Amino acid sequence: MLAAVAELTQLAGWQAYDMAEHGLAQRYLTHALDLARTADDAGLGAEILAAMIHQATYLGHTATGVDLARAARQTAHRAGLTVLTAEALVMEAHAHAVALHERDCATALHQAEQALDRADRSSDPQWLGYFDEAYLSAKFGHCFNALGQHRRAERFAARSLQMDERYVRGKAFNLALLATVHARHGELERASAIGGQALTLTTQLRSARAVRYLRDLQTHLTPHRRQPAVRHFITRVDAALSQRR
Prior knowledge:
With 245 residues, this protein is mainly alpha-helical. It has a domain at 150-245: Serine Threonine Protein Phosphatase 5, Tetratricopeptide repeat, CATH 1.25.40. The protein is built from twelve helices and no strands. The protein is globular, with a radius of gyration of 18 Å. It starts with a helix and ends with a helix.
């Protein structure tokens, strides 16, 4: 019962995070972690810590993200779930990348790949089903994008789209990532076209994060708005998201 309530509380935390209610999200996630500890469910505890790392890195609190990632790795080891170790490592890598610590990021990414390769997925809890090669590729793409390594980011962002189509929110995020990589590399028409796909999905969602990713893309493209494809995309974004957070 405690573990079930911890899962539901974590979900509430994710929803609050996605709607940019960050203080509320932190309270829900902290409470979920307490519930998982009381339930003596180390695996769920590591998963909740991974959510906390995700939010900390998104907010730019990279040192906190790294500290939480190390706690998540210890908890994953206690749970005996190697795939959770891989998740903690890739989250740590993203925090290092946002902090522009390239060597630490590379080390964590390499360790994450190794951990996922040796993980036995047959005993995974149901709530971990989303963590697959596509999800890992998206995190790699975010890392290389943060480090300015655009070609490597493009390769992984493209691979991340080989994903379960039921994850509409995740696909919107991944499309926005790929479009942003193209924009930062000067491939403006491709960025605008892929950004348009991300916009189509985002209009179906209530997600402050999805809106932010599109607005960030729009910022990258705005200096080039004289190009017809860019101008068309920017106009579409403004029309679709002018009333959205």
